[in-house]
């Protein structure tokens, strides 16, 4: 087995692209970076993916790298921050060279897609594969999309379509060769963090969060932080054609409401900004759908054809072990 | 089992002390922090501890927290940076309440000792305990203690005493009730990152590294980065009274040369700065010992009583799995 230092040189040195703000990159006790201008804040987020919990043991190395980067950059998107730097901690049972080569290829492509620079990390051995990403970005204080800004009367929007990732996970255990299968599994394996949308919303949205635990669970965080309630119409949740083609309306709606890891954004905005939001949607080529509104009554009410809707999993992933920022 | 969110609220909320530069702490998509003044750089480092690799399964939770914080802050010390922010990723097999309470107590005490603020993280479940810390600090560009600054003729110094941590690890499997046992095991379980020393060296040292893999392995990183060689005298390595009391001279010297995780600093400085270095040692109440000098010949030569010294483990932990920054 090659030594650890050789592994690092071989696989990660080329991933650490030079960036103007990186004064000292890999290979010293710390990386040294030039902080953003003093009128910006630094946004920090940490995400861990554990084998058997967040990804299947047989996931392709490139897909795993993509998911790790997207899941972590998605938190910057939800804050309206522009991505700056990425640090990687990776624990592996062995130094499998082919696996590391594929992983670093995927890592390089994903970092490039989001214009974020690898500045350091740590490689360790351990029985279970565990990957932790720490991401940093920059945002002006008055533009940061906090969870706490939702106001009574604001409209609630989501980007893209929901439930696809949950369906993609389900489909992975089947081998179906169709365009719909391909679309949904790619939505699970290669999610897209909505960085451009987050940047565009900094002047429009009153609150935002990324959908990692499931729409209702994540929207609940906005409601709690803002001290408000909400009404959501199940029929208004945007579904992809592929989801609707392969699953019943009932199943599709349940996954759209509670399925995690779509990494779309859920945000609130004053009703008067609706036109500007639709203009932004057009500019980005990304659907932005109004699904309900913020109310003063506490709690989250979901209506299906005018009747209260309830489902066992409606609270999303609220158990020890799923991803959650501290 | 309490939900994950309850666990976080219960154990970590109180650890995240308020700091003037933390604009938004735990509980949103990102933490928002005020970057340092524009004449400083941000120093970033990542460290992972894996159960069974870096710590024994029966380690006390408070000791584990202390080791994690010290090991990661030690990289800031080696860069001459002042500690700012700490992010924690923690993977545990279960949500053991008593364990988490003890861990968060240890975390709080260690963070306070180094004046570093918890700003976020991620908690996940997984079969093996894995802890990753990301630390950030600030240092002026011209004061950063890089590995690459050692010059021919510079003297080589180390802080404190070496080999204690390695002996402490050995002693943990015995139950000896003595002051020496206590000293050495505490050196392993509760190492001290030399932050004040690193700050004091920013105007004195030409290169620095913290001793995590073992003196000779870590000094080799300085030599490689600086493109120089070195001569080290084995007899000059500083040994604690406790190490000398419990182990033979030969064993003590071997551990001082190759044992890891003392988290002392190894640094180089021009011979003309020797008096200032001894003054700093006096101010800090910390021994700073000259152990050799930088030479133009490539490689690291170690002499024992004037003869070349070699030991099987002399290269330190150079295999896949041990701690190493990317």
Task: List descriptors.
homodimer, 326 residues, alpha+beta, 60s Ribosomal Protein L30, Chain: A, Phosphoribosyl-aminoimidazole Synthetase, Chain A, domain 2, 2 domains, seven-stranded mixed β-sheet, four-stranded mixed β-sheet, 10 helices, 13 strands, disordered C terminus
Q: Could you please describe the fold and organization of this structure?
A:
Two copies of one chain form a homodimer. Chain A is an alpha+beta fold and 326 residues long. The first copy, chain A, folds into two domains: 4-142, 60s Ribosomal Protein L30, Chain: A (2-Layer Sandwich); 145-308, PurM-like C-terminal domain (Phosphoribosyl-aminoimidazole Synthetase, Chain A, domain 2, Alpha-Beta Complex). Chain A has helices at 4-11, 61-79, 97-113, 164-172, 179-189, 195-201, 215-226, 241-246, 249-258, 274-284, and strands at 22-24, 31-33, 41-50, 82-92, 117-125, 130-139, 155-159, 207-210, 229-233, 265-269, 288-295, 300-304, 307-308. In chain A, α2 packs parallel to α3 (97-113), α2 (61-79) packs parallel to α6 (195-201) and α6 packs antiparallel against α10. The longest helix of chain A has 19 residues, at 61-79. Residues 312-326 of chain A have low confidence and may be disordered. Chains A and B meet through α1, β2, β3, α2 and β4 of A and α1, β2, β3, α2 and β4 of B. β2 (31-33) of chain A pairs antiparallel with β3 (41-50) of chain B, so a sheet runs across the interface.
């Amino acid at each position: 087995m090659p030594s650890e230092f050789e592994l690092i040189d071989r696989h990660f040195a080329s991933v650490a692209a030079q960036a103007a703000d990186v004064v000292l990159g890999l290979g010293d006790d710390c990386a040294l970076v030039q902080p953003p201008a003093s009128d910006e804040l630094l946004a920090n987020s940490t995400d861990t993916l554990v084998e058997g919990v967040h990804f299947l043991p047989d996931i392709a190395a490139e897909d795993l790298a993509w998911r790790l980067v997207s899941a972590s950059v998605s938190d910057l998107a939800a804050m309206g921050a522009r991505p700056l730097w990425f640090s990687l901690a990776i624990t592996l049972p062995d130094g499998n060279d082919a696996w590391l080569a594929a992983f670093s290829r995927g890592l390089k492509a994903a970092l490039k897609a989001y214009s974020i620079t690898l500045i350091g990390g740590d490689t360790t051995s351990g029985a279970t594969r565990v990957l932790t990403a720490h991401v940093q970005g920059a945002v002006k204080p008055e533009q940061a999309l906090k969870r706490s800004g939702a106001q009574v009367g604001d409209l609630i929007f989501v980007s893209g379509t929901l439930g696809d990732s949950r369906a993609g996970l389900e489909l992975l255990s089947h081998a179906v060769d169709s365009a719909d299968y391909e679309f949904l599994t790619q939505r699970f394996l290669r999610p897209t963090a909505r960085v451009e949308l987050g940047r565009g919303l900094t002047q429009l949205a009153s609150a935002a969060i990324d959908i990692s635990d499931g729409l209702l669970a994540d929207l609940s965080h906005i409601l709690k932080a803002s001290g408000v309630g909400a009404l959501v119409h199940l029929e208004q949740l945007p579904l992809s054609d592929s989801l609707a083609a392969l699953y019943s309306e009932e199943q599709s709606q349940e996954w759209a409401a509670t399925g995690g890891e779509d990494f779309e954004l859920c945000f609130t905005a004053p009703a008067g900004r609706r036109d500007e939001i639709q203009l932004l949607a057009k500019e980005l080529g990304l659907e932005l759908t109004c699904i309900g509104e913020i109310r003063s009554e506490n709690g989250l009410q979901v209506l299906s054809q005018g009747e209260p809707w309830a489902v066992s999993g409606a609270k999303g992933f609220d158990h020890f072990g799923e991803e959650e920022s501290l």
